[in-house]
Amino acid sequence: MSCLYIIPTPIGNLKDITLRALEKLKEVDVILAEDTRTTNHLLKHFEITTKTKAYHQHNEHIVTPKVIQEILESEKGYAIVSDAGTPGISDPGYLLIRECQKHNIQIISLPGPTAFVPALTQSGFPCDRFLFEGFLPHKKGRKKKLETLKEEKRTIILYESPHRILKLLNELNEHLDPNRLVSVSRELTKVYEETLIGTANELSQKFSKQKPKGEFVVVIDALKTN
Ligand code: SAM
Asked: Which residue is closest in CA terms to ligand 1's atom 19?
């Protein structure tokens, strides 16, 4: 039976790749990669010579039918990886997976690195239930989304770029309860990894003193329900 493996890759520290991920990356016929240069760099590090093919948000609608045909004809299956973390989590993957299901292609999803899980667990905020929102819309719908988050009682997780982190913290201060705690994790698994916890206003003041660098996950504390 034809097969697509969803393979998470490290979000910084290369030691976070799993043994099973390495085994499957070696074994498959082709690796579909968000950026072949990034993936080839990773493969080189682990001495894996499997062929890579570009599969990203700018070509997925065009190439998916051809890729489906190739997977159906492949012997050892295909793998999909993104630049970092788990494919499909704020990254391409979803469209291909849905099409594979329609064509009876078996999907095997390997567990592994993703940025929101370590950010959530180290925040100390409730992680028995949470809302993962990924990136907020950049322009249209951003305000409306922030207003709906105000009503959300569960822990909330957001992804943000270094260019917009200050703006986001200021918006959280403005739209959500200003006393609600926020945990900002930066550069997870990397040398300069840090997690800062405070109100959105306190964190905004900290980050405005020094230009924010790296990649960020923002976790917002749950509201107590009595
Ligand atoms: N697929 C990835 C995952 O499983 O987490 C997410 C990809 S998304 C395009 C990139 C965003 O993930 C970044 O803007 C940041 O919010 C978050 N991220 C990825 N790596 C990170 C890291 N090492 N530290 C903190 N956040 C990270």
From this structure: 115
- 28 has pLDDT over 70: yes
Task: Look up residue 155 and give its two tokens.
Answer: 């822990």
CA of 38 relative to ligand 1 center, distance in Å: 15
Domains of the chain, CATH where assigned: 3-109 (3.40.1010.10), 116-220 (3.30.950.10)
Residue 175 has phi, psi (to 5 degrees) of -95, -30
Centre of ligand 1 to C-alpha 149, Å, is 21
> Is residue 185 within 6 Å of ligand 1 at its C-beta?
yes
Give CA–CA dist 4/71, Å, rounded. 7
Q: In what order do the strands lie in the sheet with 155-160?
A: 130-135, 155-160, 216-220, 181-186, 194-199
pLDDT at residue 226, as a whole number? 64
